[in-house]
Amino acid sequence: MSLPRIIAHRCGGALAPENTLAGLLIAARIGxxxxxxxxxxxxxxxxxxxxxxxxxxxxxxxxxxxxLSLAELSNVNAGCRHHxxxxxxxxxxxxxxxxxxxxxxLWANVEIKPASGHEAATGRIVAxxxxxxxxxxxxxLSSFSPVALAAAVSxxxxxxxxxxxxxxxxxxxxxxxxxxxTAIHCxxxxxxxxxxxxxxxxxxxxxxxxxxxCEEADALFSTGVSAxxxxxxxxxxxxxx
Length: 241
Ligand code: G3P
Ligand code: MG
Hints:
By secondary structure, this protein is α/β, with parallel strands linked by helices. It is built from eight helices and nine strands.
């Protein structure tokens, strides 16, 4: 199976509350073959889907995720800031998201998103759970935290991983080699056509975030970009994804 070109950002993009199982279901329903989500540890070391260190933007609670146990998190609603159809959407565990991706046939980019001070533990635990899951052969790790990614690689060296950066560094070739990465994930707004073409020439996979317009997507694909993270996967037909 070819890797997906269109990757639903934070599970389902803007079509569902971010980083929820509802997002995975919608992504699959519209024909998306790939999803991205962010993974952070609870206070008792359980990886769950969450982007921000604090709960206020996406849930009905305040405060930091990293001080709550999984049991304390069980009543937190991650659906309250979206359409009423998603009125109650729990914060999913990483394991439940992996199981649903496997059931739905989705490829996953697992972005390790450690809370500050928990980088190494998050990388290690996420890698161990992914390697033991049915998604081990259909997923790729990434992290803005070099410490978290290094810990993941140390725990499970065989898992594919991407170098995740905002700006592609001048020494990207060396950075990719050091990380043992097979892909670069970067911000679309900072990527020049020349850099995209140079990366594409090497055969590395190049994926850009976050692209929500078809014209921008077409321009990026024409420079050699392989895939896009989008909040609007509904802009593409299943055959284009
Ligand atoms: O992994 C790609 C993208 O998700 C990175 O940005 O902040 O949405 O996690 P962010
Ligand atoms: Mg992310």
